[in-house]
Request: fold
Amino acid sequence: MSLNNRILAIFALVFLFAISTPTRAWAQDKIPPKIQESNSLLNLSANDLLLSKPETPEQLLQAVIQLTDLGQAASAKPYLEQLIKANIDNETVLKLRDKHGPAAFLGLANNKTLQPESITLLKKMETAFRAYATDPARIDGLINDLAGSSTKRNIAIIELKSAGEIVAPPILRKLSTNDDPGMNDELAFALTQLGAPVVQPLIAALRSPTEKIRKIAADVLGDIGDPSATLYLWNPAFSQSQPQSVQRAARMALEKIYKTNPRKVKELNPHNAQLQLINAALHLYQTHEDKSEKQKIWTWDLKEQTIVQKELPTQEINLIGGLRLAKEALEMSPDRQDVQTLYLAMALAMDAYYAGWNNPLPEGQGTAFNLALLSGPKAVSRVLALAMKQGHTPSAIAALKALGQIGSRTLLYEQLDKHSSVIAALNYPDRRVQFSAATTIMQLDPVKPFPGATRVISILSRSLLGEGSQAAIVVDSSVPRAQSMAGVFNELGYLTQPVQTGKAGFKAATERMDVEFIALQFNIMRWGLSQTIANLRADSRTANIPILIYGPLRLQNKIEYSTRHYPLVHYIVETENTEDVERQVTPFLQSLKTPQLTGDLRTEYRTAALYWLSHIASSQRSKIYDLTPVEKPLLQLVPNRSLASNALITLGGIPTRSAQSDLAKVVTNKVFESDVKEIAALQLAFHIQKFGLLIDSEQITAIRQAYQTAKDPKLNTALASVMGTLMPDSKVVGERLQKFQPATSLP
Reply:
């Protein structure tokens, strides 16, 4: 409806209002005129308020807007419902948008009386406009208009800008295939005018294989001046692998971005450029939580000769970005060891991510694992140290696996960051890393004692039957308070040992080697808090044990600030309420752990652990490792035919009376199969030979009976070896010789 028609309608409404109101109403001065008008309008129907009945989509929307403006949204809703049911096409929606403007649609959507139909109409308008704005044919036409008259060019830029980042790919494709310098200038200028929406697409264009595209992308980013682009301009600006034209364009872009900050301009040098890349890559390496949400990322597509947008998990995007930045830093200084370490760590992390938690790393030519093998044990050991420092479990596991194949036993005695990275991994707060470290050490096959040998057996033992108990240490100068906190942690499932000094806590942590965390009261003595934390982090046996500091709320910020440089440190507010402690502690400890092991992986761990334990028992390595702690779970594994052999071999290497007794029990047990009892008998004979006769007379009698009743030839022979180790006297030997009957009759 035109403006004139609206004015006439208002006059008509006023006239109708005047003739419909009784004369006496004019005398009621206390009633405001606006209220009188509103009450009169409420008595009118929608048909009375409109000059004609709406039928077309244009008329329906006009009626909805007119009635809503008059405060008659309820009367407008039927017309809005009719408009929605008409299911008008995008072309019609766009015509309505052009006529009334997007604000009209938004205003209707905000009117609760018209909802949800008004919201449906708004979404339909947005969808139609998005399809129109991003239509490839339309965008191509606008791009071609950039070469037209000044008016056409300005209109095209305005229209392209309204479409947002989606116009960047076709413009870059045009730049990739076009050889006209004038047209390329127009295209680059158009990108400059598009501003912030095309910054991320242009950052992706910096990785184009085409020098021209990289140069134009750098030029445009400099003109736009968005500081978020600086990180991605460092390599193009200072890497010797980049052509001079790209270097100049990137450096000029950085100068333009930093022009408002003279101090920043001084930082435009290769050293600072590499440092920025390293720090950014490290940050992305640290951000390794498994996130389910997805984000969009721009990448260069060789086939399309332009950028394309993908939607990927956040974690994958972090790894992709970190690997790229690490590679760019490596290009600037290929011989720098810390950059080599970072790049190899990121590559292993990427392959581990794609493989998944419970799957092995891909191997073979072109894989990160093979790259690690080719890089040598020193480089991989540095990767392991970095992975543990940054809390990146997958790459730590990968590094340990590689070290098991290419490392030597000297790794157990190296002083990398004041401790052996392999031994430090035994106490890393993740069971996968601990087990990988233990098996790696077994592969390195040490020939002399080393720090952590006890921890290796503890880890292998835990893998036989389950997780085992969880231990903790509380350090508090106040005995009652220490016992109170220990009680709280005991209620949470931790076998907690209270001690009174920092030095005693350190000693306990190095001796136990099974500690899940150490809790320090903020005001401990002999050593103080800072010295205790420093010593715990400097020793290989405690470097990766989580530390909890407890104290009053008022000191939390101060202590967190003073300990911020130490990894795996967390502050909790002191309380005797178990639920409060659990609420503060559990998220921290859970954040250090990886997904639960699958049943198949647990079986794999148990089989491998038993193999290595039997290896220790059957070699001379029992002088290095004490197998006594694994004795109890071994007998429970014998009924499993696939595990029985290694379990019995391990029992045979444990120099205790109970181990010999366990072997005798298997030999005399009628439930076990003959092949299992045969292995047990051979190990029993070996055990008696090595450690002497330790079983009692009752078991000896049972063994003799088993020998006499054994029908299986192999079992009978194995039991005979046991009988021989019992040191029979001359009388017994004589009796046995007389009873012997040769298989072949004497002539």
Observations:
- Residues 1-42 have pLDDT under 50 and may be disordered.
- Strands lie at 294-301, 306-313, 470-475, 494-499, 515-521, 547-551, 569-573.
- The two ends are 134 Å apart (CA to CA).
- The longest strand covers residues 294-301.
